[in-house]
Amino acid sequence: MNPPAFQRALDTLREILDGPGPRPELDLEDMPAPQSLAPYAAALSGSVYRDDDTEVAMGRLIVLYDPDGAKGWTNGFRVVAYIRADLEPDIAADELIGSVAWDWLLEALEPAGYAGVSGTITRAVSESFGDKRDEPSTTELELRASWSPTGDDLAGHVAAWCEVMCTTAGLPPAGVAAFPDRPRGTGS
Fold first, then answer.
1. Containing domain of residue 31, as a range?
2. Number of domains in the chain
3. Cα–Cα 20 to 30 A to 15, which of 5, 23, 129, 146?
4. Which Pfam families did the record assign (predicted)?
């Protein structure tokens, strides 16, 4: 039997998975959680797709619960997030993209309440050689972070992770339409 606090977290995750979904471009699924990090754990995976069904970002969100807490946790919960998103080469080359992506995370978490946040952001360029030499180079961003929720409602934390995953994928904020692509050099 799960402790009541963790059962509420599981119920919240189930409601999110069974609900309408935060955005049509985002696909969320239940996934097996690592069992060695805490006595109780649950996990979600997510993918962001373009209109042509190309995956442009993916991520995992792991909810850990230890009724006794752990070093660095401010309560019994810890949320661990991972996001990987394709980037345009000019954006990946910007030295500030890591700081900007970190700010996206903190701004998204602010309404949910968090403490003890830590993490890393990595920009990567992959080049192909040998038989793969004709494949184009790719650039991507990886965000790894963890934090302790300050309350026991995890819905806002899942929403923050989804928002950051969509933002890193280059989607406009929810409810905002993107400008249609225009040929370069046209005015107005």
1. 4-169
2. 1
3. 146
4. DUF3000
